[in-house]
């Protein structure tokens, strides 16, 4: 079935009441018919629900639907996107293992890899994975346990050649993990390019209205089963209520992503021609260094636009403070357009030299272009930029 159909129909199960909408199962535990059945369920000898930290019917419907959209065999949901990333690393890495990660990762992900995982003996080598030659060379030299990337990256929308990196990662026996938050499975399916696992911050586009936190890991059954075992013990599970909200979000995901792409394209083209903007980062512009790769690898260019203004932090803050429609918040993927200053928010905990190496400069502003009329968004940006 096509994505629009899967987004609405995939994964739904009905109780004996035959409800049309997905049911919300707000329960911590499940009742057994006998002590023997309880023992069989806990031992895994009989299928069925045991405890909502392990699995829950509403959560299972969300997992099934997202797996279908991503083209994966299985999905496991988590309490947040960061919980999904942590679950993958803690499942497959141990002391002495190394990770090759894209230099342009989200700030919290960098903090996890650089400051927390090192306490457990897992080290990370940062590589410009958008440079295919550098990526291949580093992976072959380091021979890591995991290769981890975002494509596009946050906030500069750099792309990684997923098929190439997957091939080299598998050549050295590494697992290739892709954060697909910016594209969602509507615009890109990393598993089809050879990725082993896909992670999501479902908080973003999968919800689409800034309501709840959630995360997910999607991939082959044998790999996701391992992540499930970690989550069952460690506990960062998705709540049934949040899963129900995310299920409702998935129903409109294809339509929303189409609108996000169209609106972001219009905003990016406006910014590219504005005299007070020094640079625009958006894969849909021919000036983007990976524009051709974006056309080949994605089914749309996404809703994230970053741009730079001259004058460093003060100038960027002036623009942000003068917008009227854009919400000043670090979240993204919302129906409402948002604006943020990455150097002082999402990437603010990174050392200045790390931000500089990533290209996150003080004059950089990131937009998540929402579902408002793009003409209104452009007018808002125009007045904010022109009054500088």
Give a description of the structure.
The structure is a single chain. Helix content is 41%, strand content 14%. It is an alpha/beta fold and 388 residues long. It folds into 2 domains: 249 residues, 3-Layer(aba) Sandwich (Aspartate Aminotransferase, domain 2), CATH 3.40.640.10; 134 residues, Alpha-Beta Complex (Aspartate Aminotransferase, domain 1), CATH 3.90.1150. Strand 4, helix 7 and strand 5 form a beta-alpha-beta unit. The relative contact order is 0.13.
**What is the mean predicted local confidence, pLDDT?**
96
List the strand order in the largest sheet.
1-7-6-5-4-2-3
The CATH class assignment of the largest domain is Alpha Beta
Cα-atom radius of gyration = 21 Å
Fraction of residues in β-strands: 5-15%
First-last Cα distance: 50 Å
Assigned CATH superfamily of the largest domain: Type I PLP-dependent aspartate aminotransferase-like (Major domain)
Number of strands: 12
Number of helices: 15
The structure class reads alpha/beta
Total number of domains: 2
Residue windows where pLDDT falls under 50 for at least 5 positions? none
The main pleated sheet reads as: 7 strands, mixed
What CATH architecture of the largest domain would you give?
Answer: 3-Layer(aba) Sandwich
CATH-defined fold name of the largest domain: Aspartate Aminotransferase, domain 2
Order of helices and strands: HHHEHEHEHEHEHEEHHHEHEHEEHEH
Helix content: 40-55%
- Overall form: globular
Subunit structure: Homotetramer.
Function: Catalyzes the formation of L-homocysteine from O-succinyl-L-homoserine (OSHS) and hydrogen sulfide.
Pathway: Amino-acid biosynthesis; L-methionine biosynthesis via de novo pathway; L-homocysteine from O-succinyl-L-homoserine: step 1/1
GO biological process, one term: 'de novo' L-methionine biosynthetic process
